[in-house]
Amino acid sequence: MRNYLLSTIGYSLILAVFMPAGITEDTTDKPLDVNEIVNRTNQAAYYQGKDGRARVSMVITDSQGRERNRKFTILRRDEPDPADPGNDSYTGDQKSYVYFQRPADVNKMVFMVWKHSDQGTDDDRWLYLPALDLVKRIAGTEKRTSFVGSDFFYEDVTGRNINDDTHELVKTTDNYYVLKNTPKDSGSVEFRDYTIWVHKDTFLPVKIEYFDKNGEKYREYTALGVETIQGFPTVTKASMKNLKTGNETMMSYENVQYDIGLPDDIFTERYLRKPPRKYLR
Question: Which of 143, 227, 239, 160 is nearest to 194 (CA)?
Fold first, then answer.
């Protein structure tokens, strides 16, 4: 199974009414093994259908209430799991293509990711800057920096490798599995640990809290809306808050489609400069 768990977009998530405030312990259901929960969450968050497309509106609001807007389209294609003999499980490598339309200063900018299923293999990331006609490789050390000036990080968008963390099931409630995740290499990240609330019916993450080295919560992801599209529970609205600066980024997803038959050659350097407009409409 693909070794990525939602840290943020990504991609991708339940209505706000399901948030964990006031929930009580569930003593009737036997909790699943933590690894099974993590893997099923990974699949639900990242592998809906064999491919997908969505238009995204991003609103970045600073502590003074000033807003900046971004509009972009996300294309995503999954590969079969090589461990699946019948190739029925599309949870292997994954490729993503993010094409920016607005505002003018980011128009035609492209962010592309190849996520690799092999443990220990770094993902490949590219950023095309049309104003300079420059293709920039994004190093692994930059993955926890701001994504196009928002409160999401590049790693939030691409997904964090679940093998980079240890996972502990700290609570099971009527509606949630609550997981504590601690990095194996604490020096490679700015956080001490993070906690995820996973909805028990859909296995979609609904809330993520990040704690800094002093144990203070400093970032918070919240899923604000979900719709079932082509049979798949799908995020329609989500936010990321920076609790230290007071900034917040909201992402809304529209025109979501799955299994549209995206060709593999879209996700190559050639299409960084020549966007596949047929699939971006």
Answer: 160
